[in-house]
Design goal:
Chain lengths: 240, 240, 240, 240, 240, 240
Amino acid sequence: MRIVIVNPNTTASMTAKIGAAAQSVAGAGTEVIAVNPPDGPVSIEGYVDEAYSVPGLLAEIRRQPADAYIIACFDDTGLEAARCVTESPVIGIGEAAFHIASLLAGKFSVITTLSRSIPAIEHNLVKYGLDRRCAKVRAAEVPVLELEDPTSDAATRIATEIEQAKAADRCEAIVLGCAGMADLAASLSRTHGLPVIDGVAAAVELAESVVALGLKTSRLGGYAPPRAKPYTGRFAREAP
Amino acid sequence: MRIVIVNPNTTASMTAKIGAAAQSVAGAGTEVIAVNPPDGPVSIEGYVDEAYSVPGLLAEIRRQPADAYIIACFDDTGLEAARCVTESPVIGIGEAAFHIASLLAGKFSVITTLSRSIPAIEHNLVKYGLDRRCAKVRAAEVPVLELEDPTSDAATRIATEIEQAKAADRCEAIVLGCAGMADLAASLSRTHGLPVIDGVAAAVELAESVVALGLKTSRLGGYAPPRAKPYTGRFAREAP
Amino acid sequence: MRIVIVNPNTTASMTAKIGAAAQSVAGAGTEVIAVNPPDGPVSIEGYVDEAYSVPGLLAEIRRQPADAYIIACFDDTGLEAARCVTESPVIGIGEAAFHIASLLAGKFSVITTLSRSIPAIEHNLVKYGLDRRCAKVRAAEVPVLELEDPTSDAATRIATEIEQAKAADRCEAIVLGCAGMADLAASLSRTHGLPVIDGVAAAVELAESVVALGLKTSRLGGYAPPRAKPYTGRFAREAP
Amino acid sequence: MRIVIVNPNTTASMTAKIGAAAQSVAGAGTEVIAVNPPDGPVSIEGYVDEAYSVPGLLAEIRRQPADAYIIACFDDTGLEAARCVTESPVIGIGEAAFHIASLLAGKFSVITTLSRSIPAIEHNLVKYGLDRRCAKVRAAEVPVLELEDPTSDAATRIATEIEQAKAADRCEAIVLGCAGMADLAASLSRTHGLPVIDGVAAAVELAESVVALGLKTSRLGGYAPPRAKPYTGRFAREAP
Amino acid sequence: MRIVIVNPNTTASMTAKIGAAAQSVAGAGTEVIAVNPPDGPVSIEGYVDEAYSVPGLLAEIRRQPADAYIIACFDDTGLEAARCVTESPVIGIGEAAFHIASLLAGKFSVITTLSRSIPAIEHNLVKYGLDRRCAKVRAAEVPVLELEDPTSDAATRIATEIEQAKAADRCEAIVLGCAGMADLAASLSRTHGLPVIDGVAAAVELAESVVALGLKTSRLGGYAPPRAKPYTGRFAREAP
Amino acid sequence: MRIVIVNPNTTASMTAKIGAAAQSVAGAGTEVIAVNPPDGPVSIEGYVDEAYSVPGLLAEIRRQPADAYIIACFDDTGLEAARCVTESPVIGIGEAAFHIASLLAGKFSVITTLSRSIPAIEHNLVKYGLDRRCAKVRAAEVPVLELEDPTSDAATRIATEIEQAKAADRCEAIVLGCAGMADLAASLSRTHGLPVIDGVAAAVELAESVVALGLKTSRLGGYAPPRAKPYTGRFAREAP
């Protein structure tokens, strides 16, 4: 099975870290290809960065044949559009983490990077229906690329936020709200005594699951393939 | 007052029609500039077209100073990102129509173009909170550009759908779910005996309203200005 | 265009202040008539005051021809009944503020006068669907008529509550929850660095908007004109 | 125990019928006093009639000492205001029927008189939280006073609507949506083979229940006693 | 009228206390029989205890003819199953307390025994639709059987939690979340100045109410009588 | 990895079919043990059957060590209690199907066996938050054990219901609402042209996923291990 995991930002070191995290949980027969587009923001922190990452993301999905795709941004950037351009299942790491957390705990809290990302995550939770399972979305106020910096105190700030979530939110599990936190889940879980879910690993498992089930994205409704039509200007060659 | 209305698709004839509709309801002191980006799909019918229209949309907003902006696609394509790149208020024609309808009727039904567009509209209604006011989102199964074709039977199909909505949905008003239907609202309202709301006109009024109130988009939370950072590849020059 | 703004309480000085606030934002061609009924409570603070203000409110609406009406009590007292007695649009200042705030911010908090008014406002938010957009309804514990008293510390208490809302509610805008706060919005917005919405001004803009759009209240469903029937006793002459 | 049941419309024959229905289910030690105000509409069919019935309703409650009050209009007209003017519990027949139905069935449908009354009932269900238990609110299109006319075919139309509700709504019980239907419940239940709940009887039982429990309406929050203040004009003597 | 109240745990002293509390509020013509099954947990504190109490509970209901049944565990353990095995109404003390509180207050908070019981109560509130009326579910961290111990400080801890609920939840009434607290309601209500509702007493009143109304549980939908079929092993004789 | 799948009814042929379906999708290194309790109903069709199946289900889980457990009844019978008696993850086939369907389609409809099972499934969807993703729960009116009978027309009735769901519900995927339908999913998906999800296969994949992720059920909140206490009578030896 071949899974392509797309980091929709253009920071190759983060792509490598995500790829390693993904491969480490993948099954024996699963090949994980981690890619990022050449075009777009070096990190995704808010709606504007999201918008500029989607054309590159869709191009990677179209370029890379795969049994399933993973979008490795916690905002599930471009998820609906991606589902329209391929029959193969597409999993967002945000939704993956929410679904897995829902199997292990009544309510979970999310710890993301920056406050500005909270509304987009809350919108996704409402869209997925899983806002009812989420106690609170919190921000550790750690910029995304600081997670790549071994000298940063990001881990401490995340740990502090987890303790506050346990005390104040009545949450039973933690979802880590950024692909760049993928390497922290196991040790945080041990330290804080509750399930801590990383979306990258969760998405690999769910992607393998839907492929093993022989299921494809529905072609009815919103995920129907795009209608053939001209695109103009710099997107002309990306027309459906 | 200067209002820039951006048609996020690249069909100039539709932009002209939208601009005329907008100017016709604007106040005496309001200058309406209707533009469309050079890059992107010729019509927006689903998530993929949406994704490729946003970079062009944001470029138009950055290029054109204005007291307020209107996004003239009923999906409110790129609305959140647009709100981050300018302090001036940004109004989507979808949200505008929903808010105006809520002032005139307990419940409204939406008539959009194609079924594939229904889920995105439903998601927006949930995000805005106004799903509770919407009886049903319906599709007349009319492609967007057919609305530009005077020989099409699009108007008949829309009228049929309105009658079905009145009979089956217990709706008290109709929202027209495409910028290309802007010229139909008044006659449909007379014919069917209930308020029929066009989002383009509604958005012009709401844009004028927020400007007159001296209000700007909040810079707290999700609409904070984008963080300065490099963008790579073909989007390098569009970095915040 | 002629807009009649009805202060449903009987305090003429408050009516004058509301009228001045309304006229100051109205367009050049808009005549604003501010009235209050002769019968009823001197201020509206809870369900009983509301109940006794509605007959007078309806009488004013029937007596005064207008292109649109505004109900200048934040509880939107009598709004549904008012919509039944006239085809002209009727806008409540509460709903107006909520809709305008929703165009500028993801979530807003409301600062009203007294705690006893919070449940009615929360009910309205649920009825309108906009509870999902409201972070919290707060009370500054300022009686309505104290807002008319220049020596009161009402402004300070409101400012304190705004700061608490910013810190604790993750709100991105503030809605002022009383017609008597109409004169405070602009300076509070500057001081606290977020949009502060006054319902009186918001309602004037929305009333002008729906009139400019040529729209009337729906006659289907709950806002159908009242059925002709006898009323007895002191209300005999107010029968539909 | 003394229960005052107020028919908020001014039709004495309907008050008598309601009183008889109420007394017939009341306990041995319960005295039921059925009254109606002298002022207001002869029937309540929509928001305007509601508005003009509340001052008379409140006057009756203040005039008549009681251990508990019942408001015998299915819209629960003036319920919140009534709870403020007396410590004794006040029960609306609409809420009473919904609560009792929720003890006997997963979901219920409501059969009311006229379509125009549906939105107010739906708002109440949302306010009470019991919209989740209601499959559908239906109208038999029977004016209220036609229920007083023994030659009308109202009973047939209600029966037809119940059969449609059973077939289409997956409802497990029926709530009769008008005080004037109080005498029909038992026979409809036998005929249609499911619980049919009349709000008048339900309210009598719930009023007796809360009195037996020694409970009073909360004085905190929205039901706090009205603040002392002047009322002007024809309501001057009804000031709190 | 004969009401059987089943304490689904096997602690006879608690059954006796519940029975006395129930009889004390019952009407003159009501015989209250308090029973508990011989099989199962000595107290119900969480999902596992619930599961093992239901077969005994159902056996008691089948064994004891009654006009109505009450399930005297605040989790409403086995309520749906119980409604299938008898036509007579079955009332849970949890739902009873929520419904009665909703007649007296806009919002209530619940004080239960242990944190582990909170999620089950929250699920019930969502299922009943009354989560919208509940400000917060709180735990006093008092094990169930400690309520039977006169030397415990349980009452103090409950009082403390009520004061916190008043200060922080904006609640207008308190629901006591355990059958073992039945004897505390009246004095807590006096001390804390708001309605305090005990589910045992509430359920007796509601059981009497539905019997007086001549109503039975619906046989349509989920409460249909169980289909005849073999049960195997130790439950063979309990097959429907 | 060792997965124990418990069929909570006592029909061994159905257990065998479920076991075969589960093993057929399990990974190479996964051993699937399918068991059923000796005690309880031969099929689960409604709340009473559910109640009598849980003690046997819990006993099987305690008796059989495993890396993960699956409850093979679409009602997710006993799921919460099961999560308390083991640290290993426990997956219900109902929730599994809902979560997998949510990754492939905007909205799904459920086709279950009998109408009486619909309310329990709807309650679960609300509890999980995924009611927002479910277009409708439908019943093919096929008793569970008829699915074991090769001469029955069950498959035809299910196919008919799927076509009605596609036409009327705007659903984009189908969830099969009974473990006994596990063998039908693939062919129904091909025939009807949309994803058809079987909960047994979905649960196997999710169980493998959470085990591969190294995650356990949270011990905080509702899934805390049961408190040690006596159980009496026939359940004495099953005390925690």
